[in-house]
């Protein structure tokens, strides 16, 4: 079965990355979650990037903060699409460190970067990628979008 790999640089990223976990569980999509630090477990990073595609993972969501090299390094090693989540892990420069170090990839090694702390959208985007070749997931995405629309319409009723 197809699954999504979710990795983060530290357990301290989990409160942010939980949004990706929750939305994917809501779509009944299988996930594999792990902590992989680009700087502190480089061998594990190499192994993950080289082998994730061999065990049914189709998309990787990678979240990290600060000098956030995890998504880019995984993208350099893996043939899979990588979605990067910049995590605001320090207050010093408001998360710009995370955003810029994930966003500014060189040509040829893409990382689809979502907003700061945007793990929910990372999960939805990963589901949409799977859904492009899986009608059951695509149907769930369409239901989800109908739900978004209904909420906005409802919110206008009691103005
Ligand atoms: C990054 O450093 C992690 O992704 C995390 O956002 C940040 C802080 O990590 P800890 O010091 O909390 O382990 O590598």
TrEMBL record:
Which domain of life does the UniProt lineage start with? Bacteria
GO molecular function terms listed in the Swiss-Prot or TrEMBL record: 5-(carboxyamino)imidazole ribonucleotide mutase activity; phosphoribosylaminoimidazole carboxylase activity
- Reactions this protein catalyses: 5-carboxyamino-1-(5-phospho-D-ribosyl)imidazole + H(+) = 5-amino-1-(5-phospho-D-ribosyl)imidazole-4-carboxylate
Does the record carry Lipoprotein as a key word? no
Q: What InterPro entries does the annotation carry?
A: PurE_ClassI (IPR033747), PurE_dom (IPR000031), PurE_prokaryotes (IPR024694)
PurE domain ranges (all copies): 2-152
Gene3D superfamilies from the entry? Answer: 3.40.50.1970
Q: Which keywords does UniProt give here? A: Isomerase, Lyase, Purine biosynthesis
Keyword Lyase listed? The answer is yes
Ligand binding (substrate): 10, 13, 40
The record's section on PANTHER family has: PHOSPHORIBOSYLAMINOIMIDAZOLE CARBOXYLASE (PTHR23046:SF2), PHOSPHORIBOSYLAMINOIMIDAZOLE CARBOXYLASE CATALYTIC SUBUNIT (PTHR23046)
HAMAP family the record matches = PurE_classI
- State the similarity comment: Belongs to the AIR carboxylase family. Class I subfamily.
Functionally, this protein is described as follows: Catalyzes the conversion of N5-carboxyaminoimidazole ribonucleotide (N5-CAIR) to 4-carboxy-5-aminoimidazole ribonucleotide (CAIR).
| Protein name according to UniProt | N5-carboxyaminoimidazole ribonucleotide mutase
Coding gene? purE
